[in-house]
Amino acid sequence: MNIALVVKLREDLAGAQYSLTGLTALWGAAAEGARRRGVFAPARRVLAGRERTPLTTLGRLFLLGEEVSAEELDAALPTLGSAGAAELGLVAHGANSVFYAALSVNPVPLVGKAGEQTLQRGGATEWWIISDLDDELRGGPAGPDHVMGVGGATRTLISQLPPVTGGAALDLGTGCGIVAMHLAELGAERVVATDISERALKLAAANAELNGFAGRIEFRLGSLFEPVAGEDFSLIVSNPPFVITPRSASEGARYEYRDGGMTGDELAATVVREAPGFLAPAGAFVCLANWETEWGGRGLERVRGWILDAAERNGSALDAWVIERDRVDTVQYAETWARDGGARPGQPEFDTLLEAWLEDFGARHVVTIGLGAIHIRRAAVAGTQDGRSASVIHVDQATGGLAATELGAALNATFTAGVAAERASDAEVLATRWVRARDVREERIHTPGEESPNAIALITDRPIERRVAADTLLAAALGACDGDLTLQQIADALATLLEVDATAAREALVAGVRELAWLGMVAAEGAGQL
């Protein structure tokens, strides 16, 4: 894109005060909610009775899919003008000398450190993101080189990032570039963003210029880690094209943003196996992925195998937390991605795509697909201990709600606590003073008239909503975890109080604390408050 024209666009968007906040104030929260669901009539109805301003014109054009006249567009973009907007590819000519949106220009709220809060940048709380039109505005199938805007997956990835503490960061498969911009904004000293799509890199570079990141992000063209061979990074982040896609003549168009061109979940496996080799000491890697479960198998164990392969390949221990957020059957998965390309039930192309997916899954005996995130760190220990891998790999199906604020920081703290508890010996766990997370709650269910509860549950909302059954011993021990006593002191005191064997109490609480650490309910004293 012509950078000089992008600069003019930035001036005009700022002058129009083009923002989601401003537009929502114009057409109301209910209409905004409908717009996000692809229903534009409520917002259009409100704007029909409003005075035409640069803000309303841009909202009608880019967010509501309306046509605008050349005069309206020139007034809304006085520096760029309708001719400049057309040259940038933002708009195209319709009939009767009107313009319609050819690309999306979306105001997107800024997200703070690891998703903690909304940031302010030069008085603004939103960025402008150029991308291809989404389904509702496109009115037809996406092109093979389609560049996604900021969807739910991107927001999920950003919200799960650990705190950025300087060093070099890599955004692998940058797409529209918003993750790279966040990495630069949140403190990375150097940001490299790669993609296999030249078109995606052009839009990402335009977005960087549009939002004041010119010169702060290096964009490189290439597949996977080829563009960064020989380099290492403190943080690698990736939302790769992980969609499992059939490799057959009937698979339809290959969409670069979602299909890595490999069979099954091999693209995700390749990213996970190779990424640790590009991590600096103590570096971290976070990615989204899909993984298959074959008949009689377990997808999470497949992912564990990928990580063990990476540790062996690099000769270093890895700490990993695999979080499966959802698990779907093959039919549901195929329907989702057939729709994503623009096909709809009842259309011949929809049935053709669905059949291709189901044939592919059937040939490889795949029964379900897991969807989630993979967090990996280079561990500060030797790669093997006593001939065994020293890697700590925790696989976890966790479908509860995510913390609304400070999710990334909470996940990072829980990851640290879980690894510490798992890597420690039983004696070390017992010698540790554990501290209960501040928001853990206890629920007891009683039958009226009975003194003892029928059931005890420990509950937390951070970082992921969890509910775990507990016995009287574990519940009482957690209540005593305020940092004053070691776990052994707590175990011995409770063994006497509850009249149980002291050795058995110690063993049970060691196992219990290890589980609670991975749930975000306890951490070692001094490790940082959960």
Describe this structure in words.
This protein is α/β, with parallel strands linked by helices. It folds into three domains: 3-101, no CATH class; 113-117 and 123-383, 3-Layer(aba) Sandwich (Rossmann fold); 421-524. Helix content is 39%, strand content 22%. The chain is built from 20 helices and 20 strands. It has helices at residues 3-16, 20-27, 29-36, 41-48, 54-63, 70-76, 81-88, 135-138, 152-159, 178-185, 198-210, 266-274, 299-314, 330-340, 348-363, 407-423, 426-431, 472-480, 487-498, 502-518, and strands at residues 68-69, 91-93, 98-101, 104-109, 126-131, 168-172, 190-195, 217-221, 233-238, 279-294, 318-329, 366-378, 384-385, 388-389, 392-397, 434-436, 441-445, 455-460, 466-470, 522-524. The strands form six sheets. An eight-stranded mixed sheet has the order 8-7-6-9-10-12-11-15, sandwiched between helices. It has a three-stranded antiparallel sheet with strand order 1-3-2. Strand 18 and strand 19 (466-470) form a beta hairpin. The protein is elongated and about 90 Å long. The two termini are 45 Å apart. Residues 113-118 have low confidence and may be disordered.
